[in-house]
Amino acid sequence: MINIGIIGVGTVGSSVITILNQNKDIIQARAGKFLNIKTAVVKNVSKNRDIDIKVTDNINDVLDDPSIDIVVELMGGVDEAFEVVKKALKMGKAVVTANKALLAYHRYELQECAGDIAFEYEAAVAGGIPIITALRDGLSANHILSIKGILNGTTNYMLDAMINDSVSYEYILNKAQNLGYAEANPTFDVDGFDAAHKLLILSSIAYGIDAKPEDILIEGIKNIKPDDIKFAKDFNYAIKLLGIAKKIGSKVELRVHPVLISKDKMIAKIDGVMNGISVVGDKVGETLYYGAGAGGDATASAVVANIIDIARAGKASPMLGFNKPLEDNLTLVAKNDIKCKYYVRFDVANQPGVLHSISKILSDKNISIETMLQNQKNNQRANLLITIYETYEKDLNDAIDNIKQLDFVDKTISKIRIEN
Length: 420
Ligand code: HSE
Description:
Distance between the termini: 51 Å
Number of domains: 3
Mean pLDDT: 95
Radius of gyration: 24 Å
Number of strands: 17
Bound molecules: L-homoserine
CATH class of the largest domain: Alpha Beta
CATH topology of the largest domain: Dihydrodipicolinate Reductase, domain 2
Structural class: alpha/beta
Number of helices: 14
């Protein structure tokens, strides 16, 4: 028998308990042992829960119990979770976590602390999709050329509804929260941090890159306006929040932002709360992964899979999948040096000279226009919708700052990167 201590019984924790109970026979057949949840740590012990497990609000009831083999950390947050997990490892207990924020900041220290002790985190990235196992084990013979993923179910669900059902941002965010998709603090979803945490974890497995969220370009979905959605629809684009990791020579580009992407691309067809990830390896070519990225049962499916794996093997591969640096001299591309194609929308006064002034500022920064469209809004104002060829992040930002100084241009300027 394997004894488990579970810390945090929210949406995911409750599903873990349910799955271990409802699927106990098949789980035991696969694990080779009975998996027993011995203790559950909750915030409020007096809350009525329909579970037949010892419930406590003292984390040390799990950490100091020598009979507990596996600690399942589902408490969330970074600092306290870090201390709890370190102590569990110090006490020789295997750890399973779904905590992407913890890993976004401390994965290398945790790999060090874990050493030979099993530390698993499949549920931390893309909920129920076994992308950690795929990348760390299934593709371990490859140099990873790129990873492109819809890694946040909440924003994918929201963008789908905003584009296809024309609902408002506020309405659909509220619905995503009620459905249990969103983080406790949904700004993590809509501002792109949740996807960035997941991308950082994947990029460590792929490249061994030790970046923190503040080192990479992160942009959320808040600035996508109905006029931009109309442009996307008119020109057969989907809008998706993508996490992108790309190896370019000895550099790695990491970024999270909304993209306009042709509706014909596979990843553009992933709608609703689903996640999808394309990974390109130098030997295998492109591989694709699709499934539920949020929600209690899907996430708990990955947590329980890790528990089964630990029960079977007793020992995991190195946490991030490597024992020594993967490739020497790999460095992160600075945010300003990232190059993309863009769509930019200017709300301008409809009068002579406007286009000339804007295109002059763009050309001064060596930015080349690919397409241009003007939509008249009323007698005085028009939307100028421009797509530009690949340009450096910094050059476009500088140009936009200069364009904002023109008194006939509204200060709210939309820009969305275009992904091929
Ligand atoms: N809030 C996350 C999402 C949950 O929407 O994808 C899974 O990490």
